[in-house]
Design brief:
seven-stranded antiparallel sheet, 13% strand, 774 residues, Pep_S46, 21 strands, alpha+beta, EC 3.4.14.-, signal, globular
Length: 774
């Protein structure tokens, strides 16, 4: 018995893939062949490096887009159909919603292309190429070059390189720094300005779980929406929607897998992660922990409570503030989790230990001391100085500009500068006014002055109480002298007398703008006082410390890379195209708690509570799920899988990114990270870091079975190729299949069916022979 048991265990060990290891890194696809491809193959990748990134031929990079500069999307059809997250499309969905036709609440799937909804101002960028321009940017710059001169030279060269790459407006281009300014890369994109809403599930599905489940696992959220990119008749981008535009034909679109995922499967996330600070030193982490995050949490908590109170009292106000609330709440909870995680994981202590080791390495060699010796000391001194002004920076951003009337007043700044200039051209003034008229329509569509007045009184009171008096704007002296220190009384005055609180009055001002009227407006005076104080008393000091940090951080990061030559560092995220790779994995966050890597539709029914707005389940969905009507989207276990976890390294901006299996097929859409690893932007946790993804089969189920959008699903290239590489590696045929026409695909299927019949007959004959004793 024991011998047989060990034999079975050995066989099981050979069949199960090697223990998954979390892979830190958001990698530039330009270098995937040199840095990552071999490791990716070990994990189950079956694509060549060129199938992932190629400048001259269609590759996966051509199926990935940056949506609006804030999210990621992916093409899933040859007609420009694109998937992203529900929360990425939230603003667009809300903008087409009215109390009479609230598609945010009830969902929407276009029956045909004529029903798709245009979104002026929304765009997607598709990468054409990326290029290492470090040598061109840093040519002639030495350690002796002053920081001011260095900054001027670099900015000038970045602009020149980008302008040349734009080719007279044909492309969008920019140059970004990497590794704290030690390297520079240029990115060239095509920008498509005609992006139309195709579909979205009801908010009760797209946002199921609300703030309670946000950043949490297990998850049951159908966080997806669908758009279509349009181009001119030559398949070229246009700046905005045009009547004769047609669906864009992408160079590459992702085949969609119906097979699902298994634990240990290879998983790649391709997208545009926003911002990480993995090289942030201990002093910077400590400042974030002590000041920055607590202030953000406190101010956002106040704003959210006021918005929620008014939204609960009025469906119209709720619709106006739905998108804004979701945006602010998302990172309010994130900041809470990040601080808790930093304390639990002792992130600051770990960084201090790393810095102590680095200092020992520097001290061991005189030449190292010359290059890096003062870096950490300069960093610590700079952060000590920043600590004195940090609250002012946060409160200007989160308190002053957290009130909508103050932020809206800031849009008047270009016009204000022109009105103050006696030499200003009338045409320039009219141009500034025209630009503002568009802002007026946008602002007041989702604005409620009584709500904003409550926020103004609360946040500005906190600003005056928490920021050192010597750093406060003079408007607070006005409040003290004329309103007895009551911010509520001052708010009453501002909102009763500022034209910025009224659409009609703002439009009247723009019809005949004067300097006197703008300068004397109490809403604008508040913004002007805050801005003047910030630019004159706060910003110069902050910039001085930041200049020191720029030089010191550059040396610090260079020292880390020079010391740890056995480690290949991934650059911090900066909204440029990256890929991360890893595996489908479950996790155990704490003692006696073990999470599976997937959730099913049963969890939706378990959480169903139609008295709680966060856990409402639409009637039709509830009926379909209770009937187990999963159609062709059921997993092999007979259930409908809703979400799954991988250990991919992601951050904000990856929202909407495709989760791609080893054959290059879409298996899910990334939409969140997990609560236990909220420190991920600052420090990677190899044991707990998880990427939460909606299963693509649940997406398709919602579109076809729930939304009646079978035609949309049929537009995609659906494949069912068996187990994902990493569990039982197979030859890669998806790339070829994706290029075949319908007739050829039918032939392939017929051949496969014929092969299966032959195999079945052969096995039958073998069984008969065995039973006959042959």
């Amino acid at each position: 018995m024991r011998t047989k048991l060990w034999a079975k265990l050995l066989l099981l060990a050979l069949l199960v893939p090697a223990a998954a290891r979390a892979d830190e890194g958001m990698w530039l696809p330009l270098f995937v062949k040199r840095l990552n491809h071999a490791d990716m193959q070990k994990k189950g990748l079956k694509l060549t490096a060129e199938e992932i990134y190629d400048v001259n031929n269609a590759s996966l990079k051509d199926a990935i887009v940056q949506l609006g500069g804030f999210c990621t999307g992916e093409f899933v059809s040859s007609q420009g159909l694109m998937l992203t997250n529900h929360h990425c499309g939230y603003d667009a969905i809300q903008s087409h919603s009215t109390p009479e036709n609230n598609i945010l609440e009830k969902g929407f799937f276009a029956a045909n292309k004529g029903e798709e909804k245009t979104n002026p101002g929304l765009f997607v960028d598709i990468l054409v190429r990326m290029e290492d321009v470090t040598g061109k940017v840093l040519d002639g710059i030495t350690p002796q070059t002053s920081e001011v001169e260095r900054s001027v030279l670099i900015q000038q060269r970045q602009t020149e390189l980008a302008n040349a790459a734009k080719e007279n407006g044909q492309y969008v281009a920019y140059v970004r720094d990497f590794f704290a300014g030690n390297e520079y890369y240029m990115f060239v994109y095509q920008r498509f300005g005609d992006v139309r809403l195709v579909g979205a599930p009801p908010e009760a599905i797209g946002k199921f779980g609300g703030d309670t489940d946000n950043w949490m696992w297990p998850r049951h959220t159908g966080d997806f929406s669908m758009f279509r990119v349009y181009a001119d008749k030559n398949n070229k981008p246009t700046a905005g929607p045009q009547a004769d535009n047609v669906p864009y034909v992408p160079k590459k679109h992702l085949p969609v897998s119906l097979q699902g995922v298994n634990e240990g499967d290879f998983a790649m996330v391709f997208g545009f992660p926003g911002r990480t600070q993995r090289f942030l030193p201990a002093a910077g982490l400590q400042l974030t922990l002590d000041q920055t995050n607590p202030a953000r949490i406190k101010l956002r908590d106040t704003r959210l409570k006021i918005w929620k109170e008014d939204s609960d009292a009025s469906p119209a106000i709720r619709l106006k503030y739905a998108s804004k609330y979701a945006s602010i709440a998302n990172y309010w909870k994130y900041f809470i989790g990040q601080n808790e995680g930093m304390k639990r994981l002792k992130t600051v202590d770990q960084k201090k230990a790393e810095e102590a080791s680095l200092m020992q390495w520097i001290a061991a060699d005189a030449s190292r001391g010359q290059s890096y010796g003062s870096a950490l000391n300069d960093i610590n001194q700079a952060y000590a100085g920043l600590r004195d002004y940090n609250l002012s920076v946060v409160y200007v951003s989160e308190a002053a500009n957290g009130t909508e009337i103050v932020a809206f007043a800031g849009r008047m700044a270009p016009l204000y500068a022109l009105l103050k200039d006696p030499k200003a051209d009338k045409a320039a003034i009219q141009q500034a006014v025209a630009a503002l008229r568009g802002s007026v329509e946008e602002h007041f569509k989702d604005y409620n002055a009584p709500t904003d007045k409550k926020v103004f009184a609360a946040l500005m009171q906190m600003y005056s109480a928490d920021v050192p008096k010597a750093q406060q704007p003079d408007v607070f002296q006005t409040v003290s002298k004329q309103y007895g220190g009551s911010m509520q009384k001052y708010a009453d005055y501002v909102f009763a007398n500022s034209f910025l609180a009224s659409k009609a009055k703002t439009e009247a001002f723009l019809a005949a703008p004067t300097l006197a009227k703008l300068e004397n407006d109490p809403g604008f005076k508040t913004w002007n006082s805050v801005q003047r104080n910030y630019s004159q008393n706060i910003l110069p000091r902050v910039q001085g410390y930041q200049a020191t940090l720029a030089r010191a951080n550059r040396a610090y990061v260079a020292a880390l890379r020079a010391k740890n030559t056995d480690k290949v560092y991934s650059p911090d995220a900066n909204s440029t195209l990256r890929l991360s790779y890893g595996s489908v994995r479950d996790y155990s966050p704490r003692d006696a708690v073990d999470y599976k890597f997937y959730t099913t539709a049963q969890g939706i029914l378990d959480k169903e509570d139609n008295t709680n707005p966060e856990f409402v389940v639409p009637k039709k969905e509830s009926e379909l799920l209770r009937a187990k009507d999963y159609g062709r989207f059921a997993d092999k276990d007979g259930t409908l899988h809703v979400a799954f976890t991988t250990d991919n390294d992601i951050t904000g901006g990856n929202s909407g990114s495709p989760v791609i299996n080893g054959r290059g097929e879409l298996v899910g859409i990334a939409f969140d990270g997990n609560w236990e690893a909220m420190t991920g932007d600052l420090a990677y946790d190899k044991d707990l870091k998880r990427c939460i993804n909606v299963d693509i089969r649940y997406v398709l189920w919602c579109v076809e079975k729930l939304g009646g959008g079978k035609a949309i699903v049929d537009e995609m290239t659906l494949v069912n190729n068996g187990p994902n590489p990493g569990v039982a590696p197979q030859a890669n045929g998806s790339a070829l299949l994706n290029q075949l026409g319908d007739a050829d695909k039918l032939k392939v299927k017929a051949d496969e069916d014929s092969r299966k019949v032959k195999v079945k007959k052969k096995k039958g004959k073998e069984k008969e022979a065995a039973e006959a004793g042959m």
